Amino acid sequence: MLAAAAWLRTGMPEGPPSLRLTIVGCAPAYALRPGHAASCYLVEVGGEGILLDMGQGAFAALGAYREPSTLRGIVVSHLHPDHMIDLVPLRHYLRYGLDQARSLALHAPPELRTRIGALMAEAAFLDDLPGDDLQPGTFQLGPLRVEARPVTHALNSFGFRVTRAAAEEREPGLVYSGDCGRPEDVRDLVRPGDTLLCEASWGTSSPVASEAAHLTARQAAQVARDGEAARLILTHVLDAYDPAGSATLAGTVFAGPVQLASPGLVVDIG
Ligand SMILES: [Zn+2]
Q: What is the pLDDT of residue 12?
């Protein structure tokens, strides 16, 4: 957290801009540890930033790193609350918390606007965050390019690969699994040299039935190995499934560096 705060004060270092990933929150559907917000990942380049997901607790946690209205946009992987429910305080902030109301681009799966509109009994609740429904393919948010690919989890779930919009063909990017129960879906997003931010909800447990809709640490590591990723960051690990042991286990499968996501972790990519 301190490293990120210092970076905000001093600006980007000299030289070609690289992607910077900051873990704002990485908890799964529930966590008993204070300060552990759910899924929320800040991706920045050249002073501009986007968020991947915004689960419970993420809005307040984001304040440690970035003033929310300065974001270029938000991308949501799927419709579970631990990936999107803090769009509610974000929208309140954009409308009521600034001298002048602001809007932010939101790219989310079909139905998200309907569901949050129903929750808030206000169909147009997310109109302050305009944007397209996610479809398989590529779109641009400011200086970042996002590739969206369907993954096997809940209805309309996506994983993402993020690169600089101006990236050369072979320039490494960030792949985020979202929530996914089928390793092959994530594997299809990974290019050699990428950083893989992969869910491992089931941690050190043995492979489970595919209908469980989440991955183990071993499966995440196999994706990193088979995709020739440069680095693996495990995230979304349930407390009951040994988060620290999960990183150790993954290191027996994938030869590159393995880290366990934690709030405030900052990783430079490229
Ligand atoms: Zn989910």
A: 43
